[in-house]
C-alpha cells in the first residue's frame, strides 16, 4: 500500500473563540465566516474534529480512515506500535485578538484517569505580534499552592505570573502543569499532543453575549499545576539557512526550524511521518508521486513511507515536525 501514499493536505477546521479575530484571514489567507475565529486546526484526530483530505485520490477521506487503512505506512513503525490508529499530534494556527484565559493542561496520567485521553504538552512559535504583546508563561517567583490559591481568590493572580513581551520567531515550550496564556495581539503556530483538555483558572472576569462567564476548572487545576517546575520555557535555537535547526525535542514531538532559499534534498530517517508548517513564504515539495506547494499558513503531512523528497523555495520559513 505504501507506494500510493503521497503528501497530504487537509481542510482547516476553524474555531470561533470569544478571544478570536481576523488575522487567520488577513495574514494566513484562511476563508473565515465569522469575525472572531481564534484557531485553525490544520491536522486533527480529536474526536468530533477529524481532518479531511483536500488533495489527490484521498480527497474527501478522513485522517482516521487513512490511519485504519495505512497504519505504520502513515505513522511509522514505532509510532504505530505506541499509538495504534490514533494520530499523536494536533497542529494549529492561533490568533488571539484578546487575551486567552489563564490556563494549564494535565499530564498523561491525570488526563487518562479523568478524561480517557492524552495529556497536552505543547509548543508555540510566534508568527506575528502587535506592539507590546505578551505571552504568560509560568510564575515570576517561587509559588506554593497556598500562595497561588490566595492570589486566585483575591483576583490578584496576574501579580505572580510571568509576562513575556514577544516578537516573531520567539518560541516557548509549554509543559503539562505550567500555567500559561496567549496574550492579545499574538498570532502563533502551536504543536501539541492530540488532546483538547484545558483547565481554565482565570478568564479576566469577561462574559459572553448572554452575560455568562465561561466555566473555570479550579478544583481540577490545583492538582495539575506543577509548582516545582523550572523556568526553562523559552527556546533558543539556531537559524542556519537550508538545514534543520533543532528547536524542541521532547518525548511527544521534535520540531525543527528550516529557513530555505534553495533546493534541498531530504531523506526521512526518523521512522515517522513529517509535518511541514509554512510560517513564511512558500515552498514546493516534490516526491515520486508529484509536487505539492504550501504557502504561508498552510500545512503538509508526509507519510512515513515517503523516504526521499525535495524542498524548493526562493525564501521560506518552515516548522518541521515529527515524532
Automatic annotation (TrEMBL):
Ion transport among keywords = no
A Pfam family annotated for this chain is PMI_typeI_cat
- Report the superkingdom from the record: Bacteria
What InterPro entries has UniProt attached to this entry? Carb_Metab_Reg_Kinase/Isom, Man6P_isomerase_Firm_short, MPI_cupin_dom, PMI_typeI_cat, RmlC-like_jellyroll, RmlC_Cupin_sf
Every copy of the Mannose-6-phosphate isomerase cupin domain together lies at 246-322
Which SUPFAM superfamilies does UniProt cross-reference here? Answer: RmlC-like cupins
Q: Which organism is it from?
A: Winogradskyella immobilis
Q: GO molecular function of the protein, one example? A: isomerase activity
Q: Name it.
A: Phosphohexomutase
Q: In what residue span(s) does the Phosphomannose isomerase type I catalytic domain sit?
A: 9-116
Q: Which UniProt keywords apply?
A: Isomerase, Metal-binding, Zinc
Amino acid at each position: 500500500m505504501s507506494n500510493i501514499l503521497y503528501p497530504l493536505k487537509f481542510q482547516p477546521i476553524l474555531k470561533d473563540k470569544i478571544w478570536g479575530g481576523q488575522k487567520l484571514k488577513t495574514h494566513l489567507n484562511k476563508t473565515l465566516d465569522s469575525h472572531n475565529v481564534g484557531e485553525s486546526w490544520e491536522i486533527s484526530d480529536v474526536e468530533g474534529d477529524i481532518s479531511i483530505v483536500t488533495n489527490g485520490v484521498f480527497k474527501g477521506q478522513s485522517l482516521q480512515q487513512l490511519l485504519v487503512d495505512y497504519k505504520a505506512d502513515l505513522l511509522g513503525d514505532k509510532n504505530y506500535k505506541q499509538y495504534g490508529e490514533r494520530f499523536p499530534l494536533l497542529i494549529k494556527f492561533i490568533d488571539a485578538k484578546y487575551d486567552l484565559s489563564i490556563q494549564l493542561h494535565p499530564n498523561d496520567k491525570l488526563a487518562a484517569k479523568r478524561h480517557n485521553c492524552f495529556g497536552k504538552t505543547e509548543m508555540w512559535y510566534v508568527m506575528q505580534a502587535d506592539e507590546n504583546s505578551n505571552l504568560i508563561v509560568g510564575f515570576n517567583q517561587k509559588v506554593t499552592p497556598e500562595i497561588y490559591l490566595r492570589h486566585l481568590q483575591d483576583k490578584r493572580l496576574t501579580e505572580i505570573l510571568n509576562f513575556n513581551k514577544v516578537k516573531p520567531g520567539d518560541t516557548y515550550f509549554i509543559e503539562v502543569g505550567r500555567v500559561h496564556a496567549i496574550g492579545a495581539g499574538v498570532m502563533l503556530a502551536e504543536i501539541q499532543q492530540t488532546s483538547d483538555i484545558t483547565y481554565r483558572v482565570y478568564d479576566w472576569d469577561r462574559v459572553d453575549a448572554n452575560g455568562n462567564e465561561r466555566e473555570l476548572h479550579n478544583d481540577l487545576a490545583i492538582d495539575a499545576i506543577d509548582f516545582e517546575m523550572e523556568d526553562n520555557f523559552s527556546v533558543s535555537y539556531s537559524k542556519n539557512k537550508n538545514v534543520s535547526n533543532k528547536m524542541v525535542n521532547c518525548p511527544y514531538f521534535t520540531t525543527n526550524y528550516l529557513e530555505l532559499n534553495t533546493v534541498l534534498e531530504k531523506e526521512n530517517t526518523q521512522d515517522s511521518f513529517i509535518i511541514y508548517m509554512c510560517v513564511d513564504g512558500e515552498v514546493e515539495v516534490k516526491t515520486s508521486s508529484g509536487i505539492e506547494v504550501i504557502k504561508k499558513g498552510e500545512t503538509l503531512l508526509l507519510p512515513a513511507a515517503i523516504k526521499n523528497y525535495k524542498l524548493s523555495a526562493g525564501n521560506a520559513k518552515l516548522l518541521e515536525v515529527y515524532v
